[in-house]
Each structure stands twice: as structure tokens, then as C-alpha cells.
Amino acid sequence: MSWFARLTRRSRDDRWHDLTPTDDLAVVKARHSRAASCDWMTASERLNDAILLCEAVIRDYERILGPDHTDTLRARNDLASIYGWARRYDEQITHREALVRDYERIYAADGDEGDKWILLMRHNLARAFSAASRTDEAITLYQALAKDYARLYGARHEYTLDVHTKLAELYERSDRADEAATVRELIRAGAPEPVDLQSYAELVRELITIGRTREFLSVNASGTGAVSDQRTVEIGRQLNADGGMEVMRAVHAAVADALRSIPGRGRELEAAWSGIGKWQG
Questions:
Q1: d(Cα 145, Cα 165) in Å, to the nearest integer?
Q2: Residue 16 and residue 228: Cα distance in Å, rounded?
Q3: Are strands 217-219 and 226-228 parallel, antiparallel or unpaired?
């Protein structure tokens, strides 16, 4: 049984339904961690429980820390993500639009660093529009994002190229072939040289062995979250130091392909590396 299946099974108790307001910040943070442990693989009834729990967490954070505190904002972002995993897209979009407005109000005066947070919230909103098949709105937002990512990070940065790739896909979905072709040319012009995986063959083999003999993630002692395999994290940090996101992505793709017969292994590796460099699992 995978780490996530064990976590889900062990979480099926009354703790999910404890929505009693509390001023104990440690309790609120534990509830937040429990709610945020869900993702797209979670059963629908657990997602509904997680939504209720996350809403209670936000109310407690707002009362204890204030509405503009980073923990409050993070919980609101997690709630929007859970709405998306539950396919409640209208509610997700409503929350993401509110987050964009609040991040613009809070971080607009913080220069480029503030702009990066605002950009992340706008990008999350664009993804929500796309998931909800609100394609025209997604295209309009991705067009603006492409310019802003290029300004903040540069035309060849992976974030900029990712936005261009999504924009091209949306153009193709809308039968706007000429515009899609133009964006694909921009991607080819800005794309970095392919990663030479031969240089990382030993690390790729080691990760494949870890994926076959144990898991990249395991359930923590309290049963409320996941713990990354230590050696997996060490390899991720080494790859990040050597070549950043480009190398990590190439190695992840090779490992996930080799382990494709084991359901969820590629996703586990993605989550295990979360927080290493710019990697977001």
C-alpha cells in the first residue's frame, strides 16, 4: 500500500471533523497540515472534509494572526487548491480571484519580490480558468503572464517557457493555430540546451532503485502527513546545485518513466523534492 493510501486510511477518524474554534496556534497549524495533506488523488469525501477543516483553520488564523498574515494567506491558497481537486471550479476561481486582489493590496509596494508573489497568485488563477474550461479568460491572463514572467525572470527562464507552453496549448484548444505556432517558435528560441542525462546516470539508477525497493515518501509518526526519503532529498539537492530545475526535471522524467508500472511513484518523487530550489511538488 502506498504512503498516500496509508495516510488516507489513518486519517479516517473524528479528527477530520473537529472544527471547534481554538486559540491554540499549534492545534490550528496541525489542522492546517492535515487539510493540506490532500491532493488530487484523495477520495472525494475526504476532499469535502478537508474543505470544511481548511475553512475552520482560516477562521482561526484570521482571529489569532489577522487576515493578512502569511499563514492565513497560505491556508486560503490551500483551500482554493482543494476546491480544484474536488472539481468545484467556480468556488476555486472565486477564492483565487480574491487572493489576487489581496496579494496586490499587500505586496504591491514590495518591488520585484512582491511582484513574484502576485504573479504566482495570478498564475494559479489562470490554471483555475483553464481547468474550468473558461479558455478565453485563461488565454487573456496567460498572455499577460507571459510578458510579466519575461520581465521578472527573463525570456529563457523555465517559468516563462512554462507559461508560453500553456498558452500555446490553449491556443490549440481554441483552434487558433497561427497564434499557437508563433508561441511555439518563441519556446524553441528560448529553450535551453537539452540536459545530458549520461552525466547523471548513476543518480538516476539510484533513484530508480529507491522507487522499486522502498518509497520516496512515507507517513509521519502522527499519521497526519508525509516524510521524504532522506537519500531522495539529498539527490534532489545535488541535482539542484548542479543545474537547477532543468536537471531536476530531466532526471525526474527519466525516473518516472522507468517506474511507470508502479502507480503514483513519479508523483511521489515530485512531492519528495518539494521545496528544493525552485521545485514545487
A1: 12
A2: 23
A3: antiparallel
